[in-house]
Specification:
This protein is α/β, with parallel strands linked by helices. It folds into two domains: 151 residues, SPOUT methyltransferase, trefoil knot domain (Alpha/beta knot); 60 residues, Orthogonal Bundle (Trp Operon Repressor, Chain A), CATH 1.10.1270. Helix content is 36%, strand content 17%. Helix 8 crosses helix 9. Homodimer. It catalyses: guanosine(37) in tRNA + S-adenosyl-L-methionine = N(1)-methylguanosine(37) in tRNA + S-adenosyl-L-homocysteine + H(+). Specifically methylates guanosine-37 in various tRNAs. It is found in: Cytoplasm.
């Protein structure tokens, strides 16, 4: 995947894009990430990239011209790139959206700042907008990092274990089951015996039940869209019945 990030603060990406799994993905050629300083494309002497909003109001708005010029330069060799804007107005970025972006070959992410970007950026250049939650950040850089990290996990070869992305939280609409590793006991708390039994069917059943329990307790809203079979539905009914006693 080829990723181009348009930002006023490219240094913010140095840590997240140069460490751990993302760094290895870049080294293996699975990700090609380029950072572009929008301010470099401002044409005035002071490199101004924002201005007061027409009609008045607090804050400043990112100007359309520097963004347009930066995007035009990027698209010279990324002509088919899907252009994404990080914005509180965008659709919610979730597991399905991460999988969707992982299928793209070329992506450009415009990181919004201040009170937002001139609306003509949306109208003329943006293919999609994403928000990572119902809260406001100081800028779109952190949102872009989250989106890149989440999408990269679904690119074949990025994760060490091919099945990791498919078994993680939200992969089937549920929260993940509890995980344990050595030692078998710590400060009097033992690993559930079923995980030490070697019975794969029992382990799978335990994990499924725990995932259902965690989701029902913490994020019951997820159950409305989760893919549940009859055994799942029966177990959830039992949990709800027990909670009412």
């Amino acid at each position: 995947m080829k990723l181009d990030i348009l930002t006023l603060f490219p240094a913010m990406f140095e840590g997240p894009l140069t460490e751990s799994i993302i760094r290895r993905a870049v080294e293996k050629g699975l990700l090609d990430i380029r950072l572009h300083q929008i301010r470099d494309f401002a044409t005035d002497r002071h490199k101004v990239v924002d201005d007061a909003p027409y009609g008045g109001g607090d804050g400043m708005v990112m100007k359309v011209e520097p963004i347009a010029a930066c995007l035009e330069a990027v698209k010279v060799d990324r002509p088919e790139a899907r252009v994404i804007l990080t914005s509180p107005r965008g659709r919610l970025f979730d597991d399905a959206a991460a999988r969707e972006l992982a299928q793209e070959q070329e992506i450009v992410v415009i990181c919004g700042r201040y009170e937002g970007v001139d609306e003509r950026v949306r109208e003329l250049f943006v293919d999609d907008e994403f928000s990572i939650g119902d809260f406001v950040l100081t800028g779109g850089e952190l949102a872009a990092m989250v989106m890149i990290d989440a999408a990269a996990r679904f690119i074949p070869g990025v994760l060490g274990s091919p099945g990791s992305a498919e078994s993680d939280t939200f992969s089937d609409g549920l929260l993940e089951y509890p995980q344990y590793t050595r030692p078998a006991e710590f400060q009097g708390v033992a690993v559930p015996p079923v995980l030490l039994s070697g019975n794969h069917a029992d382990v799978a059943r335990w994990r499924r039940h725990k995932a259902l329990e965690e989701t029902l307790q913490t994020r019951p809203d997820l159950l409305e869209k989760a893919v549940l079979d009859r055994d799942d539905q029966r177990y959830i009914a039992e949990l709800k019945e027990d909670a009412c006693r």
